[in-house]
Please model this.
Amino acid sequence: MPQAINKVFKFVSEHKGYRASLGVIASPHAAKTILAWGAIDQQTDDVWVPELENIKQSWPDARWTPMNQKQASLFDEAYQREQKPREDWLLSI
Model:
């Protein structure tokens, strides 16, 4: 994912009007989702997602949907909690 983040931020810096966004690539047919970085044009809603074309080879119906600010914040909070060392075992002593 770090390589995709770099590609997206480079794209955003070179294309005015686009902003980076975390989003979800979903395939209803495969019943699977993947978290992916992309760029969205704020005026036209055009999107650019570097990983999408590769994924479409396996999941032709795949679509990327950007997260809104609240969803991204909730995801970030959950991710940060998961990355912290678990100390629950100390409470049980």
Q: What stands out?
A: The longest helix spans residues 69-83. The chain has one domain: 2-84. The CA atoms of residues 59 and 65 lie 15 Å apart. The mean pLDDT is 86.
